[in-house]
Amino acid sequence: MATVYKSKIDSLLIAVLISAIVLCIYVSVTVLSSGSSATWWVILIVVSLGIGLPLWLLVGTRYTLDSKLLLVQSGPFKWRIPVVEITNITPTKDPLSSPALSLDRLRIDYGRSNMLMISPRDKERFLKDLEALRCGAV
Q1: I need a labelling partner for 84 at 20 to 30 A (CA). Which of 6, 21, 38, 135 fits?
Q2: Quick one: pLDDT at residue 138?
């Protein structure tokens, strides 16, 4: 049976994403008021990328553990990591881009020099469950 862990979300990230959404709304209203024939195409692109994607990332970032796989989803992006390929897990606050909505992260090393950082809300439970799967997979 699969267990889903939601991402921890930093308040600073929420502020940045809300600011981006407000800016996109402002740009959309400005472009609409210009009356250009290309207005609707510009608005569609701005709204899709500037509002849709940040919202999708906020509500769609999660980590699913099943018996053989760690599935990481962040909006439209997905990673499938076989549990047996995980070689190391370390806490980090690395700000590099990753499917994590918090800087309170776990760095997961897997395969041949692959790495991904995640930020499960309940880190201790996630680590305990992942370790149990790793021990059972060996």
Answers
A1: 6
A2: 45
Give the span between the Cα atoms of 51 and 56, in whole angstroms: 9
Token pair in block for residue 132: 């149990």
Average pLDDT, the chain: 89
Q: Shortest CA distance to 126 belongs to which of 102, 28, 22?
A: 102
The CA–CA distances, whole Å, from 16 to 10, 24, 45, 131 equal 10, 12, 20, 34
Q: Which of 57, 46, 39 is closest to 22 using CA atoms?
A: 46
E strands, the chain, in order: 3-6, 61-65, 69-74, 77-82, 86-92, 105-110, 114-118
